[in-house]
Design goal:
- The protein is an alpha/beta fold and about 210 residues long.
- The chain has a single domain, classed as Rossmann fold (3-Layer(aba) Sandwich), CATH 3.40.50.
- Helices cover about 40% and strands about 20% of the residues.
- Strands 1, 2, 3, 4, 5, 6 and 7 form a seven-stranded mixed β-sheet that branches.
- Strand 1, helix 1 and strand 2 form a beta-alpha-beta unit.
- Helix 1 crosses helix 6 and helix 2 crosses helix 4.
- The longest helix is centred in the last third of the chain and has 21 residues.
- Its EC number is 1.5.1.38.
- Keywords: Flavoprotein, FMN, Oxidoreductase.
């Protein structure tokens, strides 16, 4: 079987976390949809709370720890990405944003991305389109049309939301899977040891 790698980022702070729960459901639906297409999926799940100190130290020093460096390489080298954040003060969490601040802003070029978010009420659902989607567009990722938001009521008992959430998850997973089938990003991952084309040792000595 053809194999694809799926990175799953969740920025929930609590345990258990509804953010992680949504991320897992999106990942499971994507894996199932890819399997229907004859594609096996390797899933890398990352809870940012586990590397929060490493992320902040990288922001302050400019250098990732070995643990964070491994996570960044795995995420940026994947064939697809699911990114889910809790909504705080009408936008993504600081931890979520800081993680994407410390990675190279070219490393997600052409990456198929499914975005998701959780919050207490559905009033925060628009944050997906005015905060998350523009951020990934800036990073030159390819964001699937369907974003998935889950409010507290979506995890409760009864109500129409219990039917619509699985529908949104299934639709978004199908869109991500369709992009991952043709994903080939190996040539886009920047090599840190490759010199910029403008670098000229001879020219630098000639100026002295």
């Amino acid at each position: 079987m053809t194999t694809r790698t799926l990175a799953v980022i969740s920025a929930g702070l609590s345990q258990p976390s509804s953010t992680r729960m949504l991320a897992d459901k999106l990942a499971a639906a994507t894996v199932a949809t890819l399997a229907e297409r004859g594609i096996e999926t390797e899933v890398l799940s990352v809870e940012l709370r586990d590397i929060a100190t490493d992320i902040m130290n990288n922001m302050l020093t400019g250098f990732p720890s070995p643990k964070l460096d491994t996570v960044i390489e795995s995420v940026t080298g994947a064939d697809g990405l699911i990114a889910v954040t809790p909504i705080f003060t009408s936008s993504y969490s600081g931890l979520f944003k800081t993680f994407f601040d410390v990675i190279d802003n070219r490393s997600l070029t052409d990456m198929p991305v499914l975005i998701g978010a959780t919050a207490g009420t559905a009033r925060h659902s628009l944050a997906l389109d005015y905060a998350l989607r523009p951020m990934f567009t800036y990073l030159h990722a390819v964001v699937v049309p369907t974003a998935v938001f889950a409010a507290s009521e979506d995890w409760g008992s009864g109500g129409a939301s219990l039917k619509t959430l699985p529908e949104r998850i299934h639709r978004a997973a199908g869109e991500l899977s369709a992009l991952m089938v043709h994903s080939d990003r190996s040539h886009l991952v920047p090599d840190p040891f490759v010199l910029d084309a403008s670098f000229s040792p001879a020219g630098s000595f000639a100026a002295t």
